[in-house]
């Protein structure tokens, strides 16, 4: 009998059983040699009957090793992920036919609410990982000779050159399979041992996006809406890749999308489709850049313009020009904080007086994983778990920790929530920008502006997330 701490399943053993077989018989592969397949099974199972049925089904001698039912449930949820929704699961076949395997892999990743699929090649193996709630999970191992066919299938579907293996390529797949219908952004990169493919699953359905459910505190939402409802100016959202900036922008566009407004966007890629909005896909290879599109937008009589990202001086200048001529401009930018967008624009070459006269709201956001409500545990809290220089905003005697259950695939977390920092630019702050004063901490404190660290700490204090999740944000207090 194994203890729970000892048991782990090798990824390359998982294909001995299909997902349906593993869940139906409550068994998992331990190891296999030429003549025998050893499986873990529940200690309450009828060993002889189960052994006989599995040998007939799999056509090999079976050896069963009983472990606790709770551990079987944990291992099944960890290694044979399945959708918790009522419509059931999508089975990925154990055979690696490139066509079937890819289609089923994408469908499975979508059902598991994964954002990305990583298909990677190494010297002795190839593996498939998926990203769920921001964390990578290894799902499959492929043989080296099966890998090229899979990469070629991806290239064909995304209209890429299958003969080009030396240069990076980007493409897009319009995925239609059974009940699934969505777009996939594809990136293929040559690496030391072959090409790596990353598939970003884009959610075309914007019906569920709502500013009220993203994670804003009441004061932050009021400040953000005040900026979004202005007739002109620039509203900027900052944060690293994968922090949910685009989702916040689309929720804002959905709010602004009225018959009386002409709303235009230039995006890379177009992640959601919104009826009533004129969306343009960036194509830098033919000269359709953010700056070039913005220049044309100004001749299209727009009311609201959304720019996917301000990444260079040309785009920043055109955004400033659009705001000065009476348009509301929404965009994203890469900085560490909401106030950092000001210095970033100035570093790009925008004069401080132009930033002060056009920037109406700046926001920063991050995504924090939420503890699974079904299994989180309360424990006494040790203040040594904080970063050394951090001073807590209030005393916390108890906190919640991740445990893991079938509902959260034994990760301890289920879902994510955005944490925001929103700064409305009023006349006093605009004056400080114009004079080049970047040290406005006291002014923000006077206005009751919650920082990323404060809002993340509030989630921790309420027991919605763990200290491990908010730890990186506490350095920005």
**Major sheet: order of its strands?**
12-11-13-14-10-15-18
The profile of the biggest β sheet is: 7 strands, mixed
In total, the number of strands is 18
Overall outline = globular
How far the N terminus sits from the C terminus, by CA atoms, comes to 49 Å
Radius of gyration: 26 Å
Q: What class do helices, strands and sheet pairing give?
A: alpha/beta
Q: Averaging pLDDT over every residue, what do you get?
A: 87
User: What is the percent of helical residues?
Assistant: 25-40%
Specify the number of helices.
15
Oligomer: single chain
Unreliable stretches? 84-95
Q: How big a fraction of the residues is strand?
A: 25-35%
Describe the structure.
By secondary structure, the protein is an alpha/beta fold. Helix content is 30%, strand content 27%. The protein is built from 15 helices and 18 strands. The strands form 4 sheets. A 7-stranded mixed sheet has the order 12-11-13-14-10-15-18, sandwiched between helices. A 6-stranded antiparallel sheet has the order 6-5-4-9-8-7, with helices on one face. A 3-stranded mixed sheet has the order 1-2-3. A hairpin with a 2-residue loop joins strand 7 and strand 8. The chain is globular and about 80 Å long. The two termini are 49 Å apart. The relative contact order is 0.08. About 3% of the residues have low confidence.
